[in-house]
Design brief:
The strands form four sheets. A four-stranded mixed β-sheet has the order 3-5-6-9. It is of the alpha/beta class. It is built from 26 helices and twelve strands. The longest helix is centred in the N-terminal third of the chain and has 42 residues. Pfam families: CBS, Voltage_CLC. One of its GO terms (molecular function) is voltage-gated chloride channel activity. Keywords: Antiport, ATP-binding, CBS domain, Chloride, Endosome, Ion transport, Membrane, Nucleotide-binding, Repeat, Transmembrane, Transmembrane helix, Transport.
């Protein structure tokens, strides 16, 4: 009996924390597609099934886009409301945030547009007034209490229901997309808890963002919806290949988000900018300086954050995640409240820093002295001397810069959902605005200097501080993540500022060069290495002159390679081999003497097939012979029935010779997504190289601990 005449449940699947076999999965999908195409010519029903199969990918992307867009809009609206809840409540309806509460008020003045009778601070509700030291202390106390409550709920829900919901999720998503299996990481409980706790964590005022975790949320949506379609449910590689269709999913998500309008400005971008003055070529000098700052900050942040996270893993600090979150939240809230630029949400701060001061702006950053403006068709204002409020804002922003730089180091990586895009952009935006105001004042008082002569005349609008904030944000985000082209596109999407791509490119490239000079890894790659995920970085060069025989196992001092012969082993022999080893698979050879390679069989498939045979095939006992040959030779009389398992064997495992250069082997693993590769010499099996062996070898060549390449 050939057990593989019918599909055996579980065969071809993978255990947790294992790497998928891309070659096998692609082959399975080709066979499935070939079968559907052949059957489609036989009947109308089969043709309809073929059309349905081809359309299912687009339908899946439609559902992913709708679900992701709806969740993103809901998260943003909820976070905005809960952030404002720390400062007060709307009497018209507690579900309104501060801005929505004051929209319909007829008693709101232009100078105090945030104050309206419908919105009451906690001090006004509790002590009846919002003035005086007691009211300030009451608002301070309520701000801290709400922050602690939100963060406590977030970390408690993560710890109790979905431990995988913490962090940004991007390092794990990169690893999963490379072919690694982490069961439950993209499951429904993770989706539910991450969505809820992301709102709570952002609302608590911690120095974190929601953009990175939203990637995790969207991947959870896609993974859950994949199970509705057979071709994605049964093929791990197929689930990971949707690059072209993801464009359609993004289109649907954007349409859904536009319909929800979470930002309240009828636009798709979070920080819409509309600068009125073009930038000048000489301004590339300060833009490059911002790039240098972003690169230095990025390298500092990565080293400091990884050191703190390693300390969390190796000391008792990691045993008390709830206490750590509460302490960091308390420190953040206590230090943030006195400074208006740290008290507001980070998204609101960045939006204010990106803003170009116009006639209708009442912000402290726009309170310049001696404003006398002639009426013109443009909203642009000439460069003016800074007023007292602007200088006060500069001091507050300087303190906010130091605060954000330090507190983000200990916040990223805690056991709550935490993104890094918005905090990194905030650091760069503050630095950029400070430099922009400085340049603006230089241009006003020293317009005859060489750098300003010829393009910046008195009374002209030469410098736009908001543009400097935008460029600084891109520089710092680039220094932390090491993104270049995609970062410029992201900044363009976030701001809608197409004409400022050149300054963004200059700052981003400078930031990456400086950061790479100080350390090669971005923050996500550093966390992948810290956690020991089996991820081969595509951009990391392998320049060492080692051969496959130097990396393969077994080594000279090791016991011989565990193999299965094609026709000489019993069920008991194979079960003993499985029990005595922990390998994920075994090479199949002609005999122990010849070591001629026949194929490769996965451990999981072997275990499931033997268990299935014992249940379904009568007479199978420990003495039954296992055959991987095409034809079963005649058996002695009265012998137990044999098992034919050729169907679960990979007949074309990837092989290299023992003298193949390791840089070629590394490239093969990267480009083909291999989980293992067999090493031969003149056709005889010598050893095996796995992805983990390559990662250990690369760590050893880089003078790192090779045992750190273990999933933790």
């Amino acid at each position: 009996m050939d057990l593989l005449d019918e599909p055996v449940p579980g065969v071809g699947t993978y255990e947790d924390f294992n790497t998928i076999d891309w070659v096998r999965e692609k082959s399975k999908d080709r066979d499935r597609h070939r079968e559907i195409a052949t059957k489609s010519k036989e009947s109308v029903l089969a043709l309809m099934k073929s059309i349905s199969d081809a359309f299912s990918g687009w339908l899946l992307m439609l559902l992913v886009g709708l679900m992701s867009g709806a969740l993103a809009g809901g998260i943003d609206i909820s976070a905005h409301w809960m952030t404002d809840l720390k400062e007060g409540v709307c009497l018209n309806g507690f579900w309104f945030n501060h801005e929505h509460c004051c929209w319909n008020s007829n008693e709101t003045t232009f100078q105090e547009r945030d104050k309206c009778p419908n919105w009451k601070s906690w001090a006004e509700l509790i002590v009846g007034t919002n003035d005086g030291p007691f009211a300030y202390i009451m608002n301070y106390l309520m701000y801290v209490c709400w922050a602690l409550l939100f963060s406590f709920l977030a970390v408690s829900l993560v710890r109790a229901f979905a431990p995988y919901a913490c962090g940004s999720g991007i390092p794990e998503i990169k690893t999963i997309l490379s072919g690694f299996i982490i069961r439950g990481y993209l499951g429904k409980w993770t989706l539910v808890i991450k969505t809820i706790t992301l709102v709570l964590a952002v609302s608590s005022g911690l120095s974190l963002g929601k953009e990175g975790p939203l990637v995790h949320v969207a991947c959870c949506c896609a993974n859950i919806l994949c199970h509705l379609f057979t071709k994605y449910r049964r093929n791990e590689a197929k689930r990971r290949e949707t690059l072209w269709r993801s464009f359609f999913a993004a289109l649907v998500a954007a349409f859904t988000l536009r319909s929800i309008n979470p930002f309240g400005n009828s636009r798709l971008v979070l920080f819409y900018v509309e600068f009125h003055s073009p930038w000048h070529l000489l301004e590339l000098i300060p833009f490059v300086l911002l790039g240098i700052f972003g690169g230095i900050w990025g390298a500092f942040f990565i080293r400091a954050n990884i050191a703190w996270c390693r300390r969390r893993k190796t000391t008792r600090l990691g045993h008390y995640p709830v206490l750590e979150v509460l302490v960091v939240t308390a420190v953040t809230a206590l230090l943030a409240f006195p400074n208006s630029y740290t008290r507001m949400s980070t998204s609101e701060l960045i939006s204010e820093l990106f803003n170009d001061c116009g006639l209708l702006d009442s912000s402290q950053l726009c309170n310049y002295a001696n404003v006398s403006v002639t009426k013109s068709s443009s909203n642009a204002l000439p460069d003016r001397p800074a007023g007292q409020d602007v200088y006060t804002a500069m001091w507050q922003l300087s303190l906010a810069l130091v605060f954000k730089m330090l507190i983000t180091v200990v916040t990223f990586g805690m056991k709550v959902p935490s993104g890094l895009f918005i905090p990194s952009m905030a650091v760069g935006a503050i630095a950029g605005r400070l430099l922009g105001v400085g340049m603006e004042q230089l241009a006003y008082y020293h317009h005859d200097w060489v750098i300003f002569r010829g393009w910046c005349s008195p009374g002209a609008d030469c410098i736009t501080p908001g543009l400097y904030a935008m460029v600084g944000a891109a520089a710092c985000l680039g220094g932390v993540t090491r993104m270049t082209v995609s970062l410029v596109v992201i900044m363009f999407e976030l701001t809608g500022g197409l004409e400022y791509i050149v300054p963004l490119m200059a700052a981003t490239m400078t930031s990456k060069w400086v950061a790479d000079a100080l350390g090669r890894e971005g923050i996500y790659e550093a966390h992948i290495r810290l956690n020991g995920y089996p991820f081969l970085e595509p951009k990391e060069e392998f320049s060492h002159k080692t051969l496959a025989m130097d990396v393969m196992r077994p080594r000279r001092s090791d016991p011989p390679l565990s193999v299965i012969t094609q026709d000489g082993m019993s069920v008991e022999d194979v079960e003993s081999l499985i029990a005595e080893t922990s390998y994920s698979g075994f090479p199949v050879v002609v005999s122990h003497e010849s070591q001629r390679l026949v194929g490769f069989v996965q451990r999981r498939d072997l275990v499931i097939s033997i268990e299935n045979a014992r249940q379904r095939q009568e007479g199978v006992v420990s003495a039954s012979r296992i055959f991987f040959t095409e034809y079963t030779p005649p058996q002695p009389p009265n012998s137990p029935p044999p098992l034919k398992l050729r169907g679960i064997m990979d007949l074309s495992p990837f092989t290299v010779t023992d003298h193949t250069a390791m840089d070629i082997v590394v490239d093969i693993f990267r480009k083909l997504g291999l989980r293992q590769c067999l090493v031969t010499h003149n056709g005889r099996l010598l050893g095996i190289i796995t992805k983990k062996d390559i990662l250990k070898h690369m760590a050893q060549m880089a003078n790192r601990d090779p045992d750190s390449i273990l999933f933790n």
